[in-house]
């Protein structure tokens, strides 16, 4: 096993790729497999360098001292010897004819004239650019995350421009240009810039408590879902009133499992229909872009039509309420089987298709976080499908089933005002997510996290069965809400939705076209990646205004359930913990990606989610 020469945190001199120049860098990590050091330059750029491209600072200082003369006595003696020579004989190494000295002076004059001319021409030719036009690029879905190529291009651009002007306004003779061309052709193999390849590495920073934490979460997450559903069935759903465990045979029914499979594959068929536009996702580590069909709204409309047909033929949709626990168990069993399949197939996946956060080499951790980034069966993307379709649309269907169950159980001619508020607020949220389906392609779930137990269970079990907890609670614990209170709750939800949607729209519009005149009032901090960090608007208020709007909406969803029990507010408490944890992950990734620019942004925008609080 090779011994690494430089330690993490050590300040060394790193060679810039494609050049002979060394810059002061700091070692951040070392890849034992690829034998590459990850170093960080002073401008925040991070690159992977070989050990041969890194030298200690002492070696540069030593060479500098050796390049000077040995001792003062020798220097003085050499000067005295040179002065003692005969006036008629020139010093050794300085003998040259008068014509050679004149040529040397002429070369100096030509160089000075060329430099002056180049500077004058560059001043005349350089266009006036503003900050907005500098970042007039393509939308984020077409940008690469490889910052080394962008930085290298920016560093080489002035040199190439000077070379072009020199060739156009050169004062040298054509004979000299031919000699220079021949010399350059002999050394061109050393001048060529070699692109830096991104070598996939092992996941070193383990999240969610590492191997022990992820092992516990595999059991804790299903237990939490089943506990919450059993509590909602209690007449007194207080925390101290522990519900009795049901018989194991009552938790499983093959008919329920068959209905769940039918639902899953029906949504898969809807997603494969050749309707809707096809877009490209962000570039992968190998530069390839995957294609995604955006037809979530069409799938929702087809699902609504199918549900309408079932209700027309008097199908009892409240069957979901009567067998709610069995549906949750069926979904959990399916998500576990899917997770096992995903991990087994990931063992044969190429190295560049593995997830950055799920390639630790530990079975439990990779099984939980997801080992493969984008598992696909042909063109069918499993992770992208599960993110929005079966769970999110299923959430709306479950809410509708709870509304019908409330009317049947309590003999109501129309649903209660509380149930209407919960269904309306959450329906708006789901339709908004499907309408803006393309935006999910830039989220951490798609770009960073693999598809394993965490996302499979979260998409298929946690979202439909925990997010519908308020509607499930209201069936067994009806709550009366007055119209003024309902109006106040509606205003609160609208405020949260406005913050959530306007913040996301502001960010997406700026990424697509920073030069848009409508965004001229927005200020931003430029970064080494070519992107800008907004410091005005919602993103100058807090760092994650979309999270703030999400939390306000979550509170509005729980308020119609009253204040008799804390159970309906589990979603708000959980959501705050989830978004605080996700914000910490975002902070870590953005600091690595943007470097010093992110630190400047944090100084300008000190609050993360809650203004003046956190």
UniProtKB/TrEMBL annotation:
One of its GO terms (molecular function) is DNA binding. Residues 76-97 have a biased composition (Basic residues). It comes from the Eukaryota. CDD domains: Tudor_LBR. Residues 58-75 have a biased composition (Low complexity). InterPro entries: ERG24_DHCR-like, Lamin-B_rcpt_of_tudor, Sterol_reductase_CS, Tudor. Pfam families: ERG4_ERG24, LBR_tudor. It is an enzyme of class 1 (oxidoreductase). Pathway: Steroid biosynthesis; cholesterol biosynthesis. It is found in: Cytoplasm; Endoplasmic reticulum membrane; Nucleus inner membrane. One of its GO terms (biological process) is cholesterol biosynthetic process. It is a multi-pass membrane protein. The chain crosses the membrane at residues 208-230, 254-275, 296-315, 327-344, 455-475, 481-500, 521-542, 562-581. Residues 101-111 have a biased composition (Basic and acidic residues). Its EC number is 1.3.1.70. Its main location: cytoplasm. Keywords: Cholesterol biosynthesis, Cholesterol metabolism, Cytoplasm, DNA-binding, Endoplasmic reticulum, Lipid biosynthesis, Lipid metabolism, Membrane, Nucleus, Oxidoreductase, Phosphoprotein, Receptor, Steroid biosynthesis, Steroid metabolism, Sterol biosynthesis, Sterol metabolism, Transmembrane, Transmembrane helix. One of its GO terms (cellular component) is endoplasmic reticulum membrane. This is Delta(14)-sterol reductase LBR. It comes from Rhipidura dahli.
């Amino acid at each position: 096993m090779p011994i690494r020469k430089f330690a993490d945190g050590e300040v060394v001199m790193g060679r810039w790729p494609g050049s002979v120049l060394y810059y002061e860098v700091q070692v951040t990590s070392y890849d034992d497999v690829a034998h590459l050091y990850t170093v960080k330059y002073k401008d925040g750029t991070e690159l992977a360098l070989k050990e041969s491209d890194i030298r200690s600072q002492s070696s540069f200082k030593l060479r500098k001292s050796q390049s000077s003369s040995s001792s003062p006595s020798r220097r003085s003696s050499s000067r005295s010897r040179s002065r003692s020579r005969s006036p008629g004989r020139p010093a050794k190494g300085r003998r040259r004819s008068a014509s050679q000295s004149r040529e040397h002076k002429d070369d100096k004059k030509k160089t000075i004239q060329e430099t002056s001319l180049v500077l004058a021409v560059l001043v005349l030719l350089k266009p006036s650019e503003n900050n907005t036009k500098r970042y007039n690029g393509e939308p984020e879905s077409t940008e690469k995350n490889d910052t080394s190529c962008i930085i290298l291009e920016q560093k080489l651009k002035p040199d190439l421009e000077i070379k072009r002007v020199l060739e156009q306004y050169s004062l040298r003779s054509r004979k000299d240009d031919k000699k220079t061309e021949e010399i350059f052709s002999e050394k061109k193999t050393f001048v060529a810039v070699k692109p830096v390849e991104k070598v996939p590495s092992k996941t070193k920073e383990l999240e969610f408590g590492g191997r022990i934490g992820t092992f516990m979460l595999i059991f804790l997450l299903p237990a939490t879902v089943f506990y919450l559903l059993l509590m909602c069935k209690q007449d007194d759903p207080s925390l101290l009133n522990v519900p009795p465990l049901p018989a194991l045979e009552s938790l499983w029914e093959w008919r329920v499992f068959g209905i769940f499979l039918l639902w899953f594959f029906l949504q898969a068929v809807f997603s494969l229909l050749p309707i809707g536009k096809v877009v490209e996702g962000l570039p992968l580590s190998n530069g390839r872009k995957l294609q995604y069909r955006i037809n979530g709204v069409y799938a929702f409309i087809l699902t609504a039509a199918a549900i309408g047909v079932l209700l027309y033929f008097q199908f009892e949709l409240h069957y979901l309420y009567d067998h709610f626990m069995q549906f949750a168990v069926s979904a959990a069993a399916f998500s576990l089987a899917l997770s096992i399949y995903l991990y087994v197939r990931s063992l044969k996946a190429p190295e560049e298709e593995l997830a950055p956060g799920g390639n630790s080499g530990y079975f439990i951790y990779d099984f939980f976080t997801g080992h493969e980034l984008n598992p696909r069966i042909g063109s069918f993307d499993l992770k992208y499908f599960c993110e929005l379709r079966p769970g999110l649309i299923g959430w709306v269907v479950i809410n509708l089933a709870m509304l019908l169950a409330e009317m049947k159980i309590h003999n109501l001619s129309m649903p209660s005002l509380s149930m209407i508020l919960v269904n309306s607020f959450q329906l708006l949220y789901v339709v908004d997510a499907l309408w803006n389906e393309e935006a999910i392609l830039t989220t951490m779930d798609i770009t960073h996290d693999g598809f394993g137990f965490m996302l499979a269970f979260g998409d298929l079990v946690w979202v439909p069965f925990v997010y519908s907890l308020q509607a499930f609670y209201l069936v067994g614990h009806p709550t009366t809400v007055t119209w003024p209170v309902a109006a106040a709750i509606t205003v609160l939800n609208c405020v949260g939705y406005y913050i959530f949607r306007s913040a996301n729209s502001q960010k997406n519009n700026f990424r697509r076209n920073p030069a848009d005149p409508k965004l001229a009032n927005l200020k931003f901090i430029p970064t080494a990646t070519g992107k800008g960090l907004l410091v005005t608007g919602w993103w100058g208020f807090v760092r994650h205004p979309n999270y703030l709007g999400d939390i306000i909406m979550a509170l509005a969803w729980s308020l119609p359930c009253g204040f008799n029990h804390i159970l309906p507010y589990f979603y708000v408490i959980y959501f705050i913990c989830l978004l605080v944890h996700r914000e910490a992950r975002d902070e870590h990734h953005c600091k690595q990606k943007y470097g010093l620019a992110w630190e400047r942004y944090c100084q300008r925008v000190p609050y993360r989610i809650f203004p003046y609080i956190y």
